[in-house]
Inverse folding.
């Protein structure tokens, strides 16, 4: 799996013990342990594009949405009635 | 392992960052290292500190397998434990209390195990999504499905979260009310704990503080032991699902559906994925992430069963607990578990409310931050990410205030909260399944056949429960 990049450890030979108190003021040290798209600046600049929604997926999403809205309205009315009838 | 194809779209208005999808690259070795080095934030540095600790533990693992492995597990557990113990919130514990008081030890014990197993299947997918994409759930939905569907998902989450938060503060007030603490002080104490947890400005500390609080969900275990349960009956029911519950079929059906439907709520999906991202977990951590989720599910199941067992004496002695609220369960149990046991029970309700209030308000804040594009990490100092923390504290404070308003429609909210959570689950699960089966998002961590079979089975069950619960609620109210 990882690391596949021999330079990732920045001066550490493979298998060498990581130093106990890394100097995190050094950006190279920070970058050496984070994946590139884990860095906030990279995440802000790269995005997953919109996926194509097939007809089937659209129908499913709309069906679920209509279900939620309709049920919510019915349940809301029913619960208001129930609360009003409480002593 | 090979990783997913580079199909992320770059924002054309932003400067080019070269490789658009560098998930597999350690940042220092990626083509964009020089650009990134000048843009590192406090959040990145804190996350790197946590990652360094994990790297060190993995190095130790090579030389001292047990110590190293334990160290890795200790460093990486958190989101899974928190999400499941957070799900054992005040209304859930009251629901388990009502189950024990109305049906005793029997069918519902193995049923609770089944519902948590279903929750485990769902939550495992959020671990993979978070570790692979480093994106929160709301962000991914907006990215992949667009603003239109994203706003619907966010709307469901925000509404459900706020109402659930109100019920948590009802639990906090009721739990401390057992000790004679005035509501305003109880609710104020709850808010103070939420603030204390985030004031550290560090995800790691927030997680450890909240986990330390969450362990007190186990207070229901000594409360159960004080009832001197019949272990043969407990074991028998766990193995045979017997005795079956007796009573009005409609009431039993409603409780069954409510238990199924409330097992996995939308906030859990959003929370765990965002927490996995904030913790900085990477694809190689998924195995431990699964273990973390399993540990959370096992603990939550154990504590839920303990709650049912603790209130079973009310059923055995024919006490009608149908109208009981939190503190009333504790009071009613005094003859069997004494004042100490009742106090443990009340404290357990308080703890359940506190931990859930922390987790749910954080879930709302994560989602808003991801969608608004503002800082949304517990690794950010308070002043640096004030919109994030304002939403977190503001939602908790608004819920707390509502609980203190005289004649506020709390019964209405309590009735509505489970229904809304259940109704919102089918769309939330649909988005989750679509994302986790999307190779452009998940790469080789996409669901396999077995995972899809389990997930689809659970989804169909939960959707059926949602529909059934909604219909049953309407019929009951009518």
């Amino acid at each position: 799996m990882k690391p596949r990049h021999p330079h990732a450890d920045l001066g550490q030979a493979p298998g060498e013990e990581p130093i106990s108190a890394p100097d995190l003021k050094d950006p190279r040290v920070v970058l050496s342990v984070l994946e590139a798209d884990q860095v906030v600046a990279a995440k802000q600049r790269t995005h997953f594009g919109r996926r194509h929604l097939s007809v089937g997926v659209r129908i499913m999403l709309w069906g679920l949405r209509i279900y939620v809205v309709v049920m919510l309205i019915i349940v809301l009315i029913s619960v208001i009635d129930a609360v009003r009838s409480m002593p | 392992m090979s990783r997913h194809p580079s199909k992320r779209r770059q924002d054309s208005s932003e400067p080019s960052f070269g490789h658009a999808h560098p998930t597999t690259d350690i940042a220092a070795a990626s083509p964009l290292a020089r650009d990134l080095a000048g843009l590192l934030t406090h959040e990145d540095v804190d996350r790197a500190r946590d990652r360094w600790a994990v790297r060190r533990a993995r190095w130790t693992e090579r030389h001292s397998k047990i110590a190293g492995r334990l160290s890795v597990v200790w460093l990486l557990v958190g989101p899974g434990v928190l999400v499941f113990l957070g799900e054992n919130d005040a209304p859930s514990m009251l629901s388990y209390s009502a189950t024990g008081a109305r049906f005793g030890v029997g069918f519902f014990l193995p049923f609770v195990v089944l519902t948590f197993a279903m929750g485990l299947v769902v939550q495992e997918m959020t671990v993979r999504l978070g570790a692979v994409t480093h994106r929160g759930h709301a962000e991914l939905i907006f990215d992949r499905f667009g603003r239109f569907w994203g706003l619907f998902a966010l709307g469901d989450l925000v509404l459900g979260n706020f109402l659930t938060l109100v019920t948590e503060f009802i639990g906090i007030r009721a739990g401390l009310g057992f000790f004679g603490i005035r509501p305003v002080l109880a609710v104020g104490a709850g808010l103070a704990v939420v603030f204390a947890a985030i004031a550290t400005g560090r995800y790691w500390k927030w997680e450890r503080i909240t986990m330390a609080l969450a362990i007190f969900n186990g207070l229901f275990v000594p409360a159960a032991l004080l009832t001197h349960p019949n272990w043969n009956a407990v074991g028998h029911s766990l193995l045979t699902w017997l005795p079956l519950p007796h009573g009005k079929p409609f009431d039993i059906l409603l409780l069954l559906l409510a238990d199924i439907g409330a097992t996995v709520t939308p906030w859990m999906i959003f929370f765990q994925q965002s927490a996995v991202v904030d913790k900085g977990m990477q694809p190689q951590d998924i195995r431990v992430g699964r273990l973390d989720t399993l540990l959370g599910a096992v603990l939550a199941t154990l504590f839920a069963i303990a709650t049912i067992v603790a209130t079973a004496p009310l059923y055995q002695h024919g006490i009608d607990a149908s109208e009981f609220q939190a503190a009333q369960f504790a009071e009613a149990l005094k003859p069997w578990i004494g004042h100490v046991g009742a106090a443990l029970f009340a404290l357990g309700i308080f703890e359940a409310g506190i931990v859930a209030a922390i987790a749910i308000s954080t879930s709302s804040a994560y989602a808003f931050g991801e969608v608004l594009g503002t800082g949304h990490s517990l690794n950010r100092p308070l002043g640096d990410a004030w919109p994030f923390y304002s939403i977190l504290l503001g939602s908790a404070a608004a819920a707390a205030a509502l609980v203190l308003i005289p004649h506020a429609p709390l019964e209405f909210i309590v009735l509505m909260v489970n229904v809304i959570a259940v109704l919102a689950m089918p769309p939330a699960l649909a988005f989750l399944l679509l994302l986790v089966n999307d190779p452009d998002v998940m790469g080789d961590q996409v669901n396999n056949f077995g995972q899809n079979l389990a997930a689809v089975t659970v989804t169909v069950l939960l959707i059926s429960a949602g529909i059934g619960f909604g219909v049953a609620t309407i019929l009951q109210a009518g």
The mean pLDDT of chain B is 87. Chain B touches chain A through 83 residues (CB under 8 Å). Chain B has two domains: 9-76, 79-477.
